[in-house]
Amino acid sequence: MMSLEFTHTTLPPRVLFGSGRGAEHLEAEVQRLSAQRIMVIAGQQELEMARQIAARIDVAMWHDEVVMHVPVEVAERARAAAQEHGIDLLVSVGGGSTTGLAKAIALTSGIPIVAVPTTYAGSEATDVWGLTENARKTTGVDRRVLPQTVIYDAQLTVSMPAELSVASGLNALAHCIDALWAPRADPINAALAGEAIRALGQGLPAVAADGEDVDGRDRTLYGAYLAAVSFASAGSAMHHKICHVLGGTFDLPHAPTHATLLPYVLAFNMSHAPEAADRIAAAFGSSTALEGLQQLRRVLDAPQRLSDLGFTAEGIPEAVEIALAANPADNPRPVTQENLSELLTAALNGDDPHTLVSATGATEGDPS
Ligand code: NAD
Questions:
Q1: Residue 200 phi/psi, 5° resolution?
Q2: Which pTM value belongs to this model?
Q3: What is the mean pLDDT of residues 252-256?
Q4: Of the residues 1, 44, 286, 332, which has the fewest C-beta atoms closer than 10 A?
């Protein structure tokens, strides 16, 4: 049983949820925050959505240089632009990369953020920032990067192509599954994670069947938010540590990497984390946690192999070395160079994740 002695933090952003109400909500937030000099950050593909959402506000400047994993030089240019224009509010309209750039500016300037997410990445609900320099992604936690307000409008996610919708939704699922064995896992963030898994398990098949199903989009966005809240509260665990290496050092795309790796980390940990596994299975309504995830992945036609994303066997030793050093010491199953290499090899080739389930369960690594 999870201990009932714990210290829990729930992060405080204001959340406005409403399909088709993004522009109205943004106008109200700009007034509430008395913002005068607004910088709207949106990548090239997100610019049209940003123009719609910002239709009712005065924009001092538009910034569209957005790059995944926020290279330091991209952050520096955006920081300089914000300073030069005397910006007092950052409005990010886009996926996690766009939110990440707003966070990079807030980190050094303290300028508040109103985040309008258009994917299921969930960065808007966390106080985690990430920057990449010399092929190493560094992440940190700082309250200055937590958006003041998050505006969720499911209409903005309708334009995501099916492949991105699936990968991004599974990225959200990785947040809540990894949260269950993360360093600060507690009964409150575990309850949020369970509800997130349930909502994503319902919403994503509807989105995959019909990308214009706004009810499915709403449920998925709700699940993605809860998933990010549970992740922000519980902390980063084994799955995220490996994905940061694959993204930061090997430049693999964020969401598809999470989507591909997740069943391998779940298979690796589940016999050592029976309470988490039971919660995941119950949320999916399946016999086991892995079966629930794999059934969903089959319905979604989810990505299968890291090799399809550009990873190669030559990269495994370096990935293992960096991920092993970053991995939380209290991961449910002891992580070694050997078993992490096995995990990455299986994920590289798209092998059946069941091969990673430990038959010895929680006794493995136990010196007694
Ligand atoms: P992304 O933001 O790079 O977006 C992927 C692509 O989809 C981009 O080309 C983007 O322009 C496009 N796009 C976004 N919304 C769209 C829409 N509605 N319709 C059509 N196209 C759309 O990818 P992502 O997966 O959202 O975010 C990944 C980044 O976010 C990574 O750098 C990751 O590390 C970071 N992240 C950070 C946290 C955190 O807590 N700090 C959490 C999750 C992700």
A1: -70, -40
A2: 0.95
A3: 95
A4: 1
Contact residues of ligand 1, CB 6 A cut-off: 43, 45-46, 68-69, 94-98, 100, 118-119, 121-123, 126, 128, 130, 156-157, 159-160, 164, 168, 171, 254-255
pLDDT (mean) for 322-335: 96
Position with higher pLDDT, 136 vs 32: 32
pLDDT of the residue at 258:
98
Query: What's the Cα-to-Cα distance from 307 to each of 255, 303, 337, rounded to whole Å?
Result: 15, 10, 20
Which ligand 1 atom lies nearest to the CA of residue 156?
18
Nearest atom in ligand 1 to the alpha carbon of residue 159 is: 19
Of 126, 142, 157, the residue at which a domain comes to its end is 157
- Distance (Å, whole) CA 292 – CA 94: 30
Examine the domain organization and report whether 143 and 170 are in the same domain.
Answer: no
- In this prediction, residue 250 carries a pLDDT of 93
Q: Average pLDDT, stretch 24-51?
A: 98
- Of 9-18, 97-106, 130-139, where does the model show the most confidence? 97-106
Mutate to test the pocket of ligand 1, among 19, 41, 44, 46 (most ligand atoms within 8 A of CB): 46
The phi and psi torsions of 329 (rounded to 5 degrees) equal: -65, -25
Last residue of a domain, one of 106, 122, 157: 157
Task: Name the 3-class secondary structure at 131.
Answer: strand
